UniProtKB/TrEMBL annotation:
It comes from the Bacteria. InterPro entries: Uncharacterised_YhfT (IPR019733). Pfam families: YhfT. The chain crosses the membrane at residues 6-24, 68-86, 93-112, 132-151, 158-176, 188-208, 236-256, 284-309, 316-341, 361-392, 404-428. This is YhfT family protein. It comes from Cytobacillus oceanisediminis. Keywords: Membrane, Transmembrane, Transmembrane helix. The lineage of its organism: Bacteria, Bacillati, Bacillota, Bacilli, Bacillales. The keyword Cell membrane does not apply. The keyword Membrane applies.
Amino acid sequence: MEMTLIILIGAVAAVLANMNIAVFNDGLRPIVSEHVEGRMTRRDLAFTAFAMSFGLVIGFGIPFTLSASIILVHSILLGTDIIGLLTPKNKWGTPLAAVIGGAYGAGLLIGLEGFVKLFDYLPLNFLEAMGAVGTPVVVTFMAFPALAVAMQFSVKKGVITFIVSALIRQLAVWLNESGVLTISGTTVTLNQEGMALITGMIFLLVFAMKEKAEEGSSIDLAAVFSDKVAKIRKNVVFFMIIGGLIAAATNLWIMAGDPISLNLLAEGKATDAGIAAAARALGFIPLVASTAIATGVYSPVGFTLIFVVGFFSPNVWVALIGGVIIIFIEVMLLSSIARFLDKYPGVRNSGENIRSAMTKLLEVALLIGGANAANAIAPGFGFFFIAGFYLLNEAAGRPIVRIAVGPVGAIAVGIIANILVALGIMNIPQ
């Protein structure tokens, strides 16, 4: 079932990209629209897609996938964007995109399993140490709403949000340790990071909804781009299919939608991963809705709520049906969401700030996690390598995105350490 799901996801996603219906890379949607409207050739579109997505697949998707042994959705869907747009949009090009997309998905899953087994044959098995990459992410994720508030409203409000979130977290810790909360004699354990996260998101939403559009300044996005909305609705069946497949794959713990929920899932915390995915989805609704309405090109994962469905569903079949339903509802509500975003520009603007805050937090957390993992693999040398790698990457103009420096650096240290152990230059850490 796992292999079937991944093959189908790869095939359907590649077809959606090939037919200019949906692409995963947010920055590609306006460019695909340029091609659809005749202002860009297919060749230029293909090269642009490759340039925008290939580096993210290699430098972002694959390292996270390997570090947790769970497929980060970016690994497969950024790849299918490239595959779909590189193949011609005709009677033989579209089926070819499906075949290559399916094979690419299968290759990811097979390669992942084979890669995990390969570690047992290495002089120094550093797979377990790689788990340290995501450890800081789980703890620090609760701080992103406070950062988003500071970026959008004021540092003062951000500090207040952070302090209250931290207090709520410690209150949850105290309640868990004291065993005060009980239901029918059973002690209830609260997730302290989850409680802090919810608190921060409440502050963010309250501040955002206080910003209303000035009279006469609102533009009805749904009315202006009604033909684009109609095009997306016409293709809703395709979105329902891939939405159900991805939700099912998430339920089986073989896929996650972002590094935070991926690391939580790797620790067996599916509920916490679902909460993190829900918080992330809130930030993506304004972006996906706005770009979809303006371009007529949707995202194969919609507002990313299908991952939340996958995490919280009791079994794979409920997840499959839930994914189908939720993405259908999303598409049907596009016009209403656009009008809501016009009414509350603070909510619309918060989407960009939420994503920026998450990115900044991940850059710091994953750098710390990568350094810890690298140092566990090669004590002393690990810290030295990550620090030098980060600084040289900055000096070179960031050929590797900051968010990937920690995981990529840790993998590099693992490879170097194995070479040194094989040469007898380094002892295996105890």
